[in-house]
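Reagents: none. Just compute today. Uroporphyrinogen decarboxylase.
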Amino acid sequence: MLKDKMTPMERAIALGKGEKVDRLPCNPNVANGVARIYGCKISEFNTSAKAIANAQIASYRRFGYDGVRIFTDLFPWAEAIGAKVNFPEDNTADLQRPAIDDISKISQLQPADPYKDGRLPMHIEAMKYLLDEVGNEVPCAGGVVGPFTNAFFLIGIERMIKLFFKNPQAVHKLCEVSLETCIRYAQAIIDTGLTPTISEPMSSCTVVSPKHFREFGMPYLKRFVEFINSKGKGVTMHICGKTDKIWEDIVSMGVAGFSIDNVVDLKKCKNQIGDRVKILGHVDPASIMYGGSPKDVRRAVVECVQQAWDSPKGYVIMSGCSLPVETPFENIDAMMDTTREIGYPVNIEKLDRMLRD
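Predicted 3D structure written out:
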């Protein structure tokens, strides 16, 4: 295993100043797979702030990637507003029942308090542990599901999509409650000393049309990003699936970084919006990171770097989405070691040789 010459924090600071670094930033997005490194069950993340933080720390120290984040699943914010969540013993939590089953109950919904409601206080506590332990050596983040996606979980995905056509005003009301919850949680993240990151899977063009995204999702996402920016924090957003038809909308919100799915054309993304936003991505988390060999991972990383290393606002090697829980450790090692082998500045001829090896 190759060794880094800089800590992730040193690397991030140097890149921000335009100074020399040892390699490109890399984040495999291990997600709840950190439980496998730490040696606990995923269900412990639902009851223990220390388990959440310690698992993230263990994984970071095992692989040496460039960012750690407190984020367990998509549903803590909807749960804090009244949704019911199913907690498997050793797998990621899933939505059991939305907060309401009829639009007549929207007025009953109240924005969540991150210090009192659901699992949110535990996540804030986990952030404190994380920051105390590794905050000086690696950038630390608190993940939050964006206001549009969270609104779906308040009434259910199918009902929400029907409301696009039958009752647009109800959609806006749900998004308002969701936005206020997201803002309160983001403020708690910032007050704790971390940086918010946004996950917005329901904004994907694979899920909703660009028209509906612009009508219902974008106004609340933009307000959310503007709030975070007003606190002096840049924000990275991830949207699953196809996003090319809304790239310009995303850039217009003022995000600092945009994480893309592996189904997206990375080079096209760089060429279109890389002059205005940092690009993160996009090694296939399923067929390559989970199902491939270390050699497959090495090739995929090199190909991604070939396409995007020179993105004007910066590039981070990353998986296209969260890694499956059982992703082989050797494949995560391969991603990190390939990044270290490539080094920085990037040598195009060296990349070509690595593909031929």
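The chain has 15 helices and ten strands.
Action item: order primers for follow-up constructs.
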